[in-house]
User: Fold this.
Amino acid sequence: MNKWIIEDTKFEVNNVKETIFTLANGKIGVRGTHEELFEDETPGTYVAGVFDKSEAQVKELVNLPYFWGIRIYIDDEFLNPMHCEILEYKRFLNMKDGTLNRCLKIKDKKGRITTVKSVRFLSFKDRNLALLRYSVIPENYENKIHIEHFIDARTLNLKKTSVDKVKHYLIKNTKITDEFVYTEAHTRDLKYIVSIISTIVPNENILRRNLIDAIIQSHEFFPEKGKEVTIDVYTSVISSRDTDNLFEKNLNLLKSATNKGFYKLYEEHKKEIEKLWNISNIEIEGDEKADKALRFNIFVLLSMANPEDDKVSLAAKGLHGEGYKGHVFWDTEIYMLPFYIYSFPKAARAMLMYRYHTLKAAKENAKKNGYKGAQFAWESADTGDEETPKWGKDYYGNKVRIWTGDIEYHITADVALGVVEYLKATEDWNFFLNYGFEILLETARFWASRAEYSKEKDRYEINNVIGPDEFHEHVNNNFYTNFLARWNIIKAIEYLNIVKEKYPEIYSKIKKKVQITEDELNHWRDVINKLFIPWDKESKLIEQFEGYFMLEDKEIKEFDEKNMPKWPKGVDLSNLNKYQLIKQPDVIMAMFILPEEFDDETKKVNYEYYEKRTMHKSSLSPSIYAILGLSIGNHEKAYQHFMRTALVDLENNQENTEHGIHAASAGGTWQAAIFGFGGMKIKENKLEFKPWLPKHWKSMKFKVIFKKKLYSVCITKNNVKVTEKALF
Ligand code: BGC
Assistant:
């Protein structure tokens, strides 16, 4: 079993595999459809940050023209592999060099045997470049062969839905010359322009056609029997997010790419991705399945980030599909950001800068809702405005109102947490003082205004919210929300004091900019002291929100063949508010985020209570139980949870991988490995490791960057070896 290879041995149309075999480089993402593009496939080509609304409920990441289409004709007759006998088939994702490879040997109805081979990649060096090499071998015949490359502009968002499908772009400015084909997709509402230029090498014997919805360039060959013929398709994609002079710029990019040639471009790309792997690869010895699954999740994380673009962030389904419409959630700061903080701080900074750039929208959002400070959108796209759809479907398929965009407030504290965690691990004061600090203050301000004072109880409350567990809507005093809100205000005051002492000039500047008065700070202090947190320190068991323990109790007793919980008998899935069953951790989530705030016994009591009631209906769930489980010594279950999260897409255990990758789960998998099994934490400003390895793991090796230094960590059963390495 090659630990770098994800293999596919069955030739078929399979929308789940399209997600798994997606290639992305932080800027462009292309789903792993076959080059021929078969009827039921769901092609997806996305450019980070290019959104449109048009007839959709909310803005969506636009599904752009698919530029990797290939068809073969023998004597002008289309060779459709779906109508042939499959003699050999293998497709594999090589995670090491980020290529998708396919080899297919087919026999058509006339007995002609053809082998076709392809390799494609999206460059990690020049993120606009997409390369495809396609070869054909006529094994037992000698006829004219056309290899046709097409850019298909018929793509739709949510193609397979009957009512929600939308065409988000119009094709304009197409140019067909002897050297290249060029086209632009103009998004209909938001007026983004995506420029696609493409050419075939070798560039002789090329027939070019421009059909209404597809631009085609095809190469004519007369090969001898058994002789391989090959074309390289060079494509460059840029957008109005990058530059104004789209045509000239893109033509130059294409020219410089063809001058370099396929091999050199591949080498350059490979060198870049290798640099990333040199830091981020984790090796688990003794468990091939876990080792490979973990690597796949890291590959996904590597594919999503672009440190050079700080106006986009990571979508919940990556650049891998249309689930959640390319929107950014708390998934970024809480689940994925730690991977980048400890592996690619520059990418982490860019993600936090996205929040800074959207601070204005967050402030408007707060104002619109009657609050002060900054309220980050539960789902955001390019501007940071609230993009959560108002309507969705429940588990029975009935239309229901979605309330998360209105009342799932905790994301505001989660963003603040991301800022503080980043600073702790990187000591990037430049970011903090210029940008992060303002986020911390404006979010604290939001919470202080969101908390309502109850005269009768002499306490502050945060009512009518949704916590991380989305089965329960409109609840009062959700533990996670209140706990994090208070933490947010405490940290803002703490850092105000630090900055005042260490950077007095910046302190005065920011105080002026944010306009914080002593009265306001006194109010913040009052909220800290009197914000109600539903935590009875005697019983240790924390109530998820006021009234949760009064709900009908149903424990999970049965699991399906993928080891996922089954709904307990008699549960009405259209009224989950009335049970204690939860979708994902909530109290446990707070313990995962701020572990030092809870003693071991409290963690244990709560873990045992809530674990039995967690349905893991979000892929964000199992990794947290893995980490918490390890911290309280529940090792066996922790391993099960780890495998659930690591295999979420490879085994499609949430049964929705076709809509895109579970990016938060990928980040959670990394965290479960490093913070869970590796037992890594920051203690007194230093990294500390208290590992526990499953019985069959011989060792786990990884690297992390902490305070601008690179550490290599090797954990075996009885030993932890940490070595400092040079960081280039
Ligand atoms: C989860 C949220 C998550 C969202 C996007 C939902 O199902 O409940 O916690 O942010 O998916 O991944």
Q: What stands out?
A: Residues 316, 324, 329-331, 468, 470, 583-584, 618, 620, 664 surround beta-D-glucopyranose (CB under 6 Å). The CA atoms of residues 349 and 431 lie 8 Å apart. The chain has 18 helices and 29 strands.
